[in-house]
Amino acid sequence: MPYLSEIQHRRIIEPNGNEVGKLADVALVPQGQFPAAQWAILATPAGEKTIRWAELAPEIGHFRLRSRLDSTPTATLPPEALRLARDLLDKQIVDTHGAKVVRVNDLQLSEVDGQLRLVGADVGLRGLLRRVGAEGVAERVAGLAGRKLPRGIIPWHLVEPLETALTQTQPAAVRLTIPHQKLALLHPADIADVVEEMTADERVAVFQQLDIETAADTLQEVEPEMQAAIVSDLPEERAADILEEMDPDEAADLLQDLPEERREELVDLMQKEEAQDVEELLTYPEDSAGGIMTSDFLALPGELTAAQAIDLLREIAPTVLPSALGAGRISAMVDQFAVWTRGYREGVPLAHGYGHPRLVRSGPTPVPAYLAQLAALESDARAAGGRWAALDAERRRSILDAAFTKAGVRALPPRPTGQHVVADLMAFYFRSSEANDDCYNALINRGIERMGARRYKTYRVYEKRFQ
Questions:
Q1: Which of 45, 130, 215, 340 is a good FRET partner for 402, with 20 to 30 A between their CA atoms?
Q2: Are 103 and 123 within 8 A, CB to CB?
Q3: pTM of the model
Q4: Which CATH code of 1.20.1250.20, 1.10.8.80, 2.30.30.240, 2.30.40.10 fits the domain covering 4-159?
Q5: CATH code of domain 184-292
Q6: 177 CB burial (10 A radius; 0-12, 13-18, 19+)
């Protein structure tokens, strides 16, 4: 499987064998999971020339033009096109799966059905070594030490470019997409982690393009010092809209950190009801009891505390999630599910984290029902002889089957629906992009048959449990 560094600067020859230049860059429009190369930028004695990628035929060590250079039509790149070397190499990129900012060292390409496609970003040491021609040597040295060089490939469908500006000195055109599909699919806490690694201009660009609810949730997750900087840099109307959607106590704390003039301007632009709640909290000293209270409240059933519920769900999870994940990943999946419940908002589009987003609105928070269901499972476990983890697998499955029947769960939900907490945990994993990663990675590494079969078999085992 080729990398950009391996084909960049290859010779370009005409049908008669005359060398007329070198491949300077490859361009494409970043659409779809693995976009196809559409243009080649050639470095010729007369300067750069852009042609359609189809005008080139790959051969060993070089590319051959299908006709003479002077008779090959010059193409024009559309504004949305990306030049891979110029716009992506050494640039920051958001890994939307791991929710972190990384730097691109090389780009992985693949020939699929006669088309050269961009399939991954190499963010590891191998990418740097490959570009300087030292990958083979480093691999042999690592082999002598009994180790392997790690691979740092992120599948292309899991990344989102960051650069925002187009300047005369830096013509790189890596822009935020509109709408900001991939970054917006992250949980607000993950977006906050990414935002904290960005420049001030990049942060403003993100908060300008996120929907208001997501922007408010994300801002609440950002460090307080950075919150004030973001709100100061945003246009007043946009900042006021975001503050309206925030919890009143969070909005009041943020406003306390702003200059008085800016604070008053933003409060004046907020809706009357939200502004009154915030102004009331602002009358209290910041560190007083009044200053840290909120005008909102959340009522939870008394059967279990939130911490007890999460601990119990960790005990239950190994019964319904694949054992191949291992104890660490199963526990982490429960933590991610708990974070999702904490960030749950009623009436927003369900477009985060389940692999198959649908344009429907979320209902009331399922947390009270979840707590009651977990309390019922704990009670059933004790009636059956002890804590959940002490029961045998057959007894645990029997309790879950009865709970699913009582809740009306007859199939794996398309996403967490609130019917039952354990079914929703399963949907949270099995319908997620994380559950599909092995398939995508297998495709990229030409192992789709073996790994895809294992993934499908595991999926069918758990799906049949609900039939």
A1: 340
A2: yes
A3: 0.43
A4: 2.30.30.240
A5: 1.25.60.10
A6: middle
